[in-house]
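Sample intake sheet
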Amino acid sequence: MGRRRGLRLVPVAGACWAVAAVASLVPAASPWIALALWSLVLALTLVVLRLSRPRGFPSRRTGSPTRFRMPRHAVRRAAAVVALAVAASAAAASHVALAQPARTAIAAPALDGGRAVDIRADVVGKIEHRADGSLAFDARATGVANGSEMHAAEVEITLRVSPEDVDKPAQLDVGATVVAHGTARPGRPAERAVLEVWASRGVEVLNPPEGLAAVTAGLRRGLVDAVEGLPGEGAGLVPGLAVGDTSVVAPSLDAAMKESSLSHLTAVSGANCALVVGIAFAIAAALGASRRLRVAVGLCVLAGFVLLVTPEPSVVRAAAMAAIAMLAVLFGRAGAGMTLLSVAVALLLVLDPWLAASLGFALSVVATGSLLLWARPLATGLARALPRPLALALAVPLAAQLACGPLLILIEPTVPVYGVLANLLAGPVAPAATVLGLAACLSAPLPWLQSGLAGLAWVPASWVAATASTASALPVDGLPWLEGVPGAMALAGVGLAVGLTIALDRRGPWVRRLTRVTSVAVVAVLLGAGFGTAALATVAGRWTLPADWSVLACDVGQGDAVLLRSEDAVALVDTGPDPEPLAACLSRAGLDRIDLLVLTHYDLDHIGGLDAVRGRVGAVLHGPGDAAGRAAIASLAAQGARPTEAAAGLSGSFGDARWRVLWPKAGSRAFPPGNDASVVLDVRGGGIPPMLLLGDLSASPQRLLTTTGALDPPYAIVKTAHHGSADQDAGLYVAAQPSVALVTVGAGNDYGHPRDEALAILDEVGARIERTDRDGAIALWESGTGSVSVWHDRGG
């Protein structure tokens, strides 16, 4: 009964969520949605008041007949819930409607004519390192100028900038005031950020963090400095486990944490907040504090923790989820927890309707709800076959994975096979690393104590790192799954079946039959979807590729990895951001050797997948390198590869195909190592249609390349520069005369690639546009008529 009562307010949260999503997605309709809902609230309020008034009923003593008597208390309760749901939904829609004029007003001058803009803003989110090496953070704009005129602003934006373009990188932190010089594009529909700004002309730090922001920034930097010098990957994990700072986590460990379903440990979650506040509660209770004082202490500690780990929206959301979980524990009832969860979700969506489109918010809510509703039944079911302590330990990660798995499929269509086991091994030690790391962070005034605590935190952090690395290295660590919404729905069905199979009492005959049927269905789905998809991605995958392919753009996400094949020789241009998708592409194509590896430049989205080809490369053609690039080339050379630095005019062959370097110019220092010094190749012959690969060149070097006369048009295929960014020179594409424009880009990337400006240029020159974000892997080859044949995963 208590559990059913706890679910009564779930429709309130659900309705508010749906309306907030629609209103934020179509903000122009939000005023009308709000008006209609407030009118409905008024009508429902009148109904509830009407039902609440006492009515005369025929007395039982008179014996007068009563055909049907409505349960008025149930009707009142249902009407009240509906009224609450509509009122919360109306409030969320009203928030969007009231905020829209300011959001529209600031977007207009920033985007007018596509001109460069200068934006003054206050940093409100932690500085994150992206796969391409850039920095990204949330900020609140206070002024926008697209010339001499400054427009006042009070809206959320996201900023991205190359690290070398920040004038005072040590002062760039939460609380700093900055001016970003670059270009802006509209934020994505239904997201809080009104503008996405790429600070191509740099970021000036006007004022460093002050007050509490300066104190917390210093504490975070102190913890990072304290773990410097500790051995192994566990050292960089300490700040992540303690305060969510992943700036020193090695890319390989970050990938392993994601593959083993442990990445939530380095994100500040409700569990971190609950742990910190729980310790504060325990200390206050040990000192004899009253319940009210304990609550006050807990709230103060929670507020301080939020400030320390940066009060960005995801952290505030996590703190709210942690508070809900703590209150549920205090009440000792899952039903109470669901009531609090529903109220909190509705309240958060009213205060911030744009959370409705946040996958992180959905994961927080689903994870909390699954623990409240599923953990106990799963523990009871598992206890029938396992020792009770083990059943209790397994129930929590299993409930979280069954509930969150369908949402995670929308990010990566892979089911982590060892996720529950990895969480079972790493989960118990993670709190120790969090507490010790947090203690080390707070003990910055005593360096000797901080170093000691950091060393103690390193022990459990190293265990977590070793667990992640081991789990990700096991065979079949990820089970390929269907993509998108169909995949999410399929996994949700499988998860529900698994949960019911474990949780239901099997003593009844009908339950035994249901369990048997469910088990068979689950096994069939897993075998069919899992091993079938895995086979297509590996052994049987080559049967699905056209036998005549000569160009294969691998679907590696936001990055480049293009295979070229002539006779029995293979060239690979860049490796994408991660080894796993590249390894899957090579396996699918049946390739175990790369004759020529071309590294156009050294951003992570172009060399992050190097581990997939180490020891299998014959020759390396590379662009001018910085320190990281030289280290990457040296590591390849140590494993037998023959490196050659590319310069315009250099040429060679693989199979019967010829390649020629068009850019960069030999000895030129006009463009430092990076995007604008990318290796540009002309490849043709040996079955490969004339092809131009432009790396990540921006418009300025594109114009210079056009003037060199090195182009040999028409090109059957042009690999569009920089994933279809807006910084393109139309003259280059006019000169190249491409038949097919290949855009290597990741679905849902943070940069809005390919940009409309780039697509318009490609349309104007009459190129057929093929995109890996929509089409998956793309194969191309020269047909008998001299034209280019194209095949891709999605659509044939």
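Comment: Residues 283 and 289 are 9 Å apart (CA to CA). The chain has a mean pLDDT of 81.
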